[in-house]
Amino acid sequence: MQIQTIQTNAFDDQKPGTSGLRKKVKVFQQPHYLENFVQSIFDTLLENGEVPAGATLTLGGDGRYYNRHAIQTIIQMAAANGFARVMVGQAGILSTPAVSHLIRKYQTFGGMILSASHNQGGVHGDFGIKYNISNGGPAPEKITDTIFAKSKVITQYKIANLPAVDIDHLGETDFGGMNGTGKFTVQVINAVQDYADLMQTLFDFSAIKQLLASGFKMKFDAMHAVTGPYAREIFINRLGAPTASLMNCEPSEDFGGGHPDPNLTYAEDLVRIMFAGDSAPDFGAASDGDGDRNMILGKNFFVTPSDSLAVLAANATLVPAYAGGIAGVARSMPTSAAVDRVAAQLNIPCFETPTGWKFFGNLMDAGKVTLCGEESFGTSSSHVREKDGLWAVLFWLNILAQKNKTNSTPISVAQILKSHWLAYGRNVYSRHDYEAIPTDAANGVIQHIKAQFDRLPNQTFASHTDKSYMVKTCDDFSYHDSVDGSVSHNQGIRILFDDGSRIVFRLSGTGTEGATLRIYLEAFEPDSTKHDVDAQIALAEMIQIALQISQLKERTRRTEPTVIT
User: Fold this and answer.
1) How confident is the model at residue 178, as a pLDDT?
2) What is the pLDDT of residue 182?
3) Alpha carbon distance 45, 387 (integer Å)
4) Whole-angstrom Cα distance, residue 27 to residue 34?
């Protein structure tokens, strides 16, 4: 078997975003486009020497269109670039947290995850690829910056002329020596087993099983994405939940024609079920395309991701894996400060980082934090180095199981949240997404806000009520990593008010068409008599101030958000 060196021309648009490179499928289908980016990753890894002898690459994705083609190409390129083994999930399926776990468990050299996460799939949808390093987490900025730099000057890539590997059946395929490099092996593994085993070591499965057998009803929506097989193994096979507890659990290349983003807009089928009045299940949850995000619902009740993180931190000792307490917590800057209040009461550190899970990796590796989360429906802990949707679902079920075990009357999701707000106060919170805005218009909004930095402090915005809001300070958030000393600038605009309220503006790094402008709104409400007020009503004045400061409607001609959470 021969290794070929293919001449190529560089592309100038292969800069990784928050979680790797995401583009339309048709972009990745351009001749040499996928190969250039993969070779740029390998060239970055090889910059300081050869791939270690016997090195293994973990490989898998969310099953979206183009995954199968990309997997065969990456296998051939891994062979040509010195890897001894590629460990790939059966049928090319591996959730993002499962990849992180496999890298850590088997100490592989790293992994490639083929996914555009919560973005739509199919022939006309999105495709993505990112590299995770040997700790199981996303490559840090210093690596992704190097990958981008190499992608702009690449002139050739290496690929082996291997036949297509059967990735639908478990087992190993051994290939002979290639140009004297030795044997190359592709191992197709059970995509679910290792991850399900890990979950069983973290949570009290017997307690959850008892809860599910007590008449407690749940509904989990895999959104035709990667977590379907994981949900069947964990909830049906191991926890004994009825088959009817699951929906949309067959992975599809186009996610059943839907948008695999677990929020109130795109998980509308689940939301309809959970807000059906008295007939609604007790607990509902959904996960996204690659299985790293989660949405938690109670009977006729929505739990914001920010509140979810705070509740998990406050109740962590109810879960076997965290029974001894947690070292600390971390949240992304746009995430509400609800978890900060829990950390203060527990007397543990709380870190505020930019958006992007890679920023949590150093803190977890250094033992500074145990739990972390982002308002974009991502929550996890130090068991992996990625967001983990099913982990969060199991955490909630474990809490519910323990609280209901010691109470004669059932404890609901809503009651857990309301008790939490009574103890800590409520951080009223919402995010407004304006998707697919022309990039120039979105950048214009950001520049317009920045141009006001000198005059916004001490400026007062009056509302139609007696309340007024005075700006205390504003900035473009920068993060100084306390572990490696690195600095990340321009991570989101913060408008902070003297009463503790805040507005955050940020351009998302996960879209593939135009720009997504996100507005985050937060106000602290200590008065328990106002805890049941709908967030959009409670934040109505803040929303108007955000639109006034940004001139978003005038500059983008968008009158309403695409998604409100």
Assistant:
1) 55
2) 73
3) 24
4) 9
Whether residues 222 and 131 share a domain: the answer is no
Both 392 and 434 in one domain: the answer is: no
Residue 474: strand pairing partners? 495
Q: How far is CA 540 from CA 535, 545, 546, 557, in A?
A: 8, 9, 10, 20
Q: Of how many residues is the chain composed?
A: 565
Q: How many CB atoms lie within 10 A of CB 546?
A: 21
What was the pLDDT predicted at 177? 62
Q: Which residues contact 175 (CB under 8 A, 6 or more apart)?
A: 1, 79, 162, 183, 184, 185, 186
pTM beyond 0.90, yes or no: yes
Q: Name the packing angle between helices 141-151 and 33-45 (round to 10°).
A: 130
Which residue ranges in the chain fall short of pLDDT 50?
A: 179
- The helix/strand/coil state of 414 is helix
Show which of 191, 207, 242 is a domain's final residue. Answer: 191
Residue of 97, 436, 69, 125 whose CA lies nearest to 256: 125
Residue 445 and residue 416 share a domain: no
Given a contact cutoff of 8 angstroms between Cβ atoms, the answer to whether 132 and 20 are in contact is no
Q: What is the distance between the alpha carbons of residues 377 and 189, in angstroms, rounded to a whole number?
A: 29
For residue 357, what are the domain limits? 194-422
Say if residue 202 is in the same domain as residue 273. yes
The whole-angstrom distance between residue 171's C-alpha and the CA centroid of its chain comes to 30
Catalytic residues: 117
Q: Render 190-255 in DSSP notation, one character per residue.
A: -TTHHHHHHHHHHS-HHHHHHHHHTT--EEEE-TTSTHHHHHIIIIIIIT---GGGEES-S--TTG
pLDDT tens digits, residue range 32-63?
Answer: 999 999 999 999 998 766 678 889 999 999 99
**How far is 436 from 513, CA to CA, in rounded Å?**
6
Alpha helix ranges (H) inside 46-116: 67-80, 96-106
- Tell me which amino acid residue 191 is: A
> How confident is the model at residue 514, as a pLDDT?
80
Q: In angstroms, rounded to a whole number, what is the distance separating the alpha carbons of residues 210 and 504?
A: 43
Q: What CATH code is carried by the domain that includes residue 93?
A: 3.40.120.10
Q: What residues contact 465, with CB distance under 8 A and at least 6 apart?
A: 541
Render pLDDT for 351-397 as a digit per residue (tens, 0 to 9): 999 988 888 999 999 999 999 999 989 999 999 999 999 999 999 99
Residue with tokens 């059906």: 276
